[in-house]
């Protein structure tokens, strides 16, 4: 018997509706196809389907179909028989007999292997590679995908008969942005869990501003992205103060950090045509508007090549100069500094976070 899955967390109507469908479908001995964006918790739903089913005391096995080559996936599914003295291997379908097998990223299965998979699902029979005798198994199949499988069928990338068989029941998981009521409970859950792992006595929750930012984010990576961001910021707050007395998003660790790659020195991929060239010049320091400047033509036999400008770093440097100037004239009052730049307070705070300032 596999370990019990974690309890799903959610109170939004769209997520509760999915959980109701899981309860209804769990008792059926038929395939289920779970579709949804990356990070929406497809494996969690698959495990819940298994543990609410009559097979709950039997094995639950997972195969990430995207992690193997075609030949290795064939062996992972069905095993292999060797003629050179090596021990034969048994695949996941063999080991999942009377239990459940979860095929994640099923869209990655090759057309050749899709046909073999179809036989195992439809008839409960398969042949191991190098073997001519059929093996019979009783396995419930739950599959998952983050792509549009009907469109894949139309392109010829996925077998229509396999999709028909898998789609006895199709559950489409809502993205996190459609579960706004679940964002803060999930964030609190992930924060408490990592705080306990770090040895902190308590989890202080989030500042009002941090909670607002969590609610307003688009969450392209869904629950997985939320979990990573909460864990990273909680860990940084613990490193700054192991008592975790200040809510996350405030205190010594500063505001929430969403992009760990953000830096004034961030590496960015550039194409050659995106890097304009211009001669260096010493511009006078003046408050009067500068006249239009036309680049002179390069001399045919110029002794040196003109160096390309690093556009992104110059923009970041100019932004930082404006921030420093606004803070200086406003006596480090962030609200007045925002007004000085014609920005809202939250826009100015966003710039402060972007440049790693903790004033």
TrEMBL record:
GO terms for biological process: phosphorelay signal transduction system; regulation of DNA-templated transcription. Residues 262-273 have a biased composition (Basic and acidic residues). This is Sigma-54-dependent Fis family transcriptional regulator. The keyword Ion transport does not apply. The keyword Chaperone does not apply. Residues 244-287 are annotated as: Disordered. SUPFAM superfamilies: Homeodomain-like (SSF46689), P-loop containing nucleoside triphosphate hydrolases (SSF52540). GO terms for molecular function: ATP binding; sequence-specific DNA binding.
